[in-house]
Amino acid sequence: MAKSFTLAIYPWVYSAKFDGTWREEFAKQRHLSAEAEAALPDEERERLYLERNRFEQLPLINFTTQYGLACFEGLKAFPQPDGSLSLFRPFDNGLRMARSMEGLIMPSFPADTFVRAVQQVVERNRTLGFTPAYDPAWEAADFVTADTVYIRPFSYAESGIGVDLSVSPWVIIINTTVGSYFSPDGDASTTTTRRVRATPGGTGWIKCSGNYVISALAKKEAEAAGCMEAIFLDSAEHRYLEEGSSCNLFAVLSDDTLVTPSLGDTILPGITRRSVMTLAEEQGMTVQERRLPVEEVLDDAVEFFGTGTAAGVAHFGSLTHEGRTATFGDGKIGPRALHFLRQLKGIQFGRLPDRHGWMAPGGGLTAGRRSSPGAAKR
Ligand code: PMP
Fold this sequence. Notes:
Layout: E1 12-18, E2 22-28, H1 34-39, H2 42-52, H3 63-67, E3 75-79, E4 85-88, H4 90-103, H5 111-127, E5 148-156, E6 170-178, E7 189-193, H6 211-224, E8 229-232, E9 248-253, E10 258-261, H7 271-282, E11 287-290, H8 294-300, E12 301-308, E13 312-315, E14 318-321, E15 324-327, H9 335-348, E16 359-361
Parallel strand pairs: 7-8, 7-14, 10-11
Antiparallel strand pairs: 1-2, 1-6, 3-4, 3-5, 4-16, 5-6, 9-10, 9-12, 12-13, 14-15
The protein binds 4'-deoxy-4'-aminopyridoxal-5'-phosphate (PMP).
């Protein structure tokens, strides 16, 4: 599809509104065939995409747009060689969404309803011909260039102008195609930021919208300094690694130990993080969840990488902290990160056996296997 300036949301949108029970609806927004849309002049296609990114039911003034009272999820459906789509650990995203809503003291959306809604909306969009198809050419570059269906569920609060909580939220689910998040050949340098993403007693442990303001500022500043990603340190001592702007962090130390910052109430419990820990244990690696001082990474790490649904397994070539820069290996992806990336993508794109029961059908009405419910827990 030709490059567009605007988000190309697929036609089918799921919504549920809470008024004592969750009332579900599927809305089909205006569309042509996927091929006809691709053939439109840029401006016309742009107008259509803009129109599809509107949802009349949602009020202008509400606790979400005014006070950032909202949470969301991000997960993907992966094109499979047999033409179907598969979801990666959707139940874990459903659990985390439910926990985020509880954290914001709003009615929580049940995880199994979440999984069913995700499957149904993806299936509807697949039936309309909007989802990408498996391309064997992706295999040569370890699927780094592959397209997937990005699924974005989010909450949205009811009308209100005073600072308040939501008692009658919506949950909306949209789909769109995404490619890779970090450019595979991009400069993979990182820098710590002085900004604080999350504080003890705050909302860092849930996926709420407000958390991403600081992330976006820090990431822009890191990019302006020529880096790919900003690395957050703890708020009290500015010494221990926490997260990237939207990914969890891992270091491989010189003795081959894999270390990731332990979860507290300032770190988002990533589903990719949990999966990489499982893959590392499977390899016989020692895996530690603990406080990870930035000096230890600078002095002793041989690999440094981030994990997330969008980021996948993204290696970081270097880390700069207060004027000091360490380069990891030759700055290119190291053997451990490459192994995790290949395993994860291989499983997700149906090229390796799904040994841990992580994958679920991306369409149709089957509930899918519930991947380890503890996985996204704090
Ligand atoms: N931390 C933050 C702040 C994030 O936004 C994300 C992306 N959801 C992650 C970590 C990684 O989480 P996951 O592996 O579940 O995508």
